[in-house]
Amino acid sequence: MTTSTPGNRISPALPLYLLLPMLSAIMAITPLTIDMYLPAMSVIADSFHTNVTQVQQSLSVYLAGYSVGMLTFGPLADRIGRRPLVLLGLAGFAITTLGLALSTSLTTFMVLRFVQAFLGSAATVVVPGYVKEIYGENTAKGMSYVSLIMMIAPLAAPTIGSIILGLGYWQLIFYLLCSYAALLLLLVVFKLRMPSDHDTTERSKKSFLKNYGVVFSTAGVKPYLGSGLLCAFAFFSYLTASPFVYMEVFQLSQHTFALLFGLNVGALAMANLLNSRIVVKHGSRKMLALATVSATLFSAALLLVNLLALDYHFTIVLLVPLMASLGIMSVNCDAIVLMKFKQETGTATAVIGTLRFGIGALAGPILAFFYTGTAMPFCLLMFLAVTGVGICQIFAFPGTWRPAAR
Hints:
By secondary structure, this protein is mainly alpha-helical. About 80% of the residues lie in helices and about 0% in strands.
């Protein structure tokens, strides 16, 4: 049974040290599904008698399915509750993932990849709402914890995929993902019990489109949605460009690239831990503003050292605090948006996720358009994205520096 405590915080029957990892594990489905099969692309292409370029399209198919799913299930979560959707999402993800392992053609693989992402989004879209229910006005603290735990997924997924490939079958990757989702489904069925699963008083009675209308028309939301969008673009620019920058421009080995990639993931994790400790005292808006100033300085320095063609060590050193700043910016943008809604949390999460993955899909083509064979396009886009977040905060002024309401 759950009980309410002061500060609008919910104390669930399942201890937080178990509940938060469970919610994080649900959120981690997306990075695991995206990253774990990347080392197997060439093997999958061979098994389907096609080329790697065709198999690579499955990543775009997944992102498209995930975006459509979030747009669909976000408002549904606000109307029918979160529990039915997390059950549907995990069950649907497990079944379609099993189908992917049994696929015998690229066409079937692509269709199931879309359905896998579409149904899986039903489970992940409700997690921020659960975090908000638990932490109330301290949602940014809860989101930081979830993000901190979830960082393990993109760090470990490619390595796990490579180890599984060593066993000889790419299908084992999807069998493992299927088992992962099935285990989470069992945990949710027996362990996830929250007041919102039974309390219908705060559920939205508005239509599908009206929920989106409320999200986009609520005062003060757009600057923070724009900030989150630009943070996501900076993240995806890094993810897209880092292999080329490290291994082609700086001529570093794959092993060194993996270490540096892990270093930046570690910086993100530490940033989320730091944010979870101090955001309650300073508020999300001030944390966002301070991190934006920090990111602007480090991204400008990154642009300068590459403009001057300085040694790659400068780029490595500057990327660590830049990625850490982006981590703080992103989680506080999301928390600020979510705190503005009581009945439309799912819809707001869907908007955040769709914008994030939509802009992420554009990062690759934009980087390709500005290709120069150097790290300059990557550095310039990172700087422009961070500067854009600062401009969004100007539109949010004077609330940016005002202490968070207690």
